[in-house]
Amino acid sequence: MNHDLEIAYVGIEVPDPATLTGFFDQVIGLVPGESADGALTWRNDDKAHRVMVSPGAANDATVVAFEAVDDEAFTATVERLRAVGFAVADGTGEQAAARRVRRLARTRAPWGISIEIVQGLADASSPYASPLVPGGFLTGGVGFGHVVFATPEFEESHRFLVDGLGFARSDWLEMEIMAGLELEVNFYHCNQRHHTVALARAPFELPQKLHHLMVETRDRDDVGAAFDRAWATDLPIPNGLGRHDNDGMFSFYVESPAGFQVEVGHGARVITDGWDDERRYDRISAWGHQPLRQKAL
């Protein structure tokens, strides 16, 4: 199968980055990353950083970087974006160094955030290790995890991902979540991970574009341990333990202090050569994922 890209890192902007420190390290099990463009950073593997948290008013994701597997894939991705009408700016050496990458180019996604195409994300000075997630996270060959955004620019965002970045749709979800309200989500892959990006159709611009990001553990028990840590806090748990119907992920969702959610999961299906299961699903979960604790009003 085609494997040119994977998520390198996600950039998040919140008024006070320190408010996410306890969440990322004590609940999710990430460890501090190394300096990147002045941001507070976190990582879930041996790379220098995977999440960058910067001060600002957005209270949302502001950038997602996709790492090309080699120079040829980097050039092909940039040329493909330009060929279908998306402006791409070449990054400078200083900008690349600030992000801890060798090459960098920037464009803008129709759903309203910056997209960086990078190559050569630096390794950390020490391996990932955390007593909270002894089995570690699954990132090799599939990148940091996945991200899910809600956007009213649904069709143009599909074109950006498929015609521009070269993603393919894995499958899609269409279901009625209450009388007269439909949920439509497309799931896209660019490597063996079932989806690296998912897009939900929104009727209007929402206060936060990022619905959630996902990290996948190598050991099923590490999901249960993370759930126990989340349950021991007063953080909202929009979805308890369950298994998704389309990708088979065993997971739960916890809401961060910034409002976006993090899914901690294990055991998702993988995309193989000749993927022939691009079809409609009519339910989010095969079982579970019930709302457990909501945000206090």
Describe this entry's structure for a reader.
With 297 residues, the chain is an alpha+beta fold. It folds into 2 domains: 5-119, Roll (2,3-Dihydroxybiphenyl 1,2-Dioxygenase, domain 1); 146-286, 2,3-Dihydroxybiphenyl 1,2-Dioxygenase, domain 1, CATH 3.10.180. The chain contains 5 helices and 18 strands. It has a 10-stranded mixed sheet with strand order 17-10-11-12-9-13-16-15-14-18. An 8-stranded mixed sheet has the order 2-3-4-1-5-8-7-6. Helix 2 packs across helix 4 (154-165). The protein is globular. The protein starts with a strand and ends in a 9-residue tail after the last strand. It comes from Actinomadura fibrosa. This is VOC family protein.
Which key terms come to mind for this protein?
297 residues, alpha+beta, 2,3-Dihydroxybiphenyl 1,2-Dioxygenase, domain 1, 2 domains, 10-stranded mixed β-sheet, 5 helices
